Amino acid sequence: MNSDNEPLLGQEDMTQCRSGSEETVKEEDKFDNLMQMSRELAHQLNNGLTSILANAQLMSLILKDEELRPYLKSVEDATRDTGTVVRNFQEAIRALDGSALQKSALDQGYRSGS
Known about the structure:
This protein is an all-alpha fold. It contains 2 helices and no strands. The model has no long low-confidence stretch (mean pLDDT 82).
């Protein structure tokens, strides 16, 4: 309250603050959903790549046809390269998720007056 016993923030100001925090919560939910979808995507890609790599390696051991080996090697190499891309993607997700957690903790501390 100020010296005239009027609130420092008017009703309109409080409504704007409330809608701003609701918008922040919506954005945080969107970010959380995106992070979860990204983690799931990376997990599913890794499962497929593991199967492809294992089968290519098994075929390379079983098949006696030397003409096929370069093609199987190509499949193995491409699978490993794609696996590296997925791992880099996972690391980026973890870094984003970690920085979002730190920001959220700082925001919580700020809101609680710490």
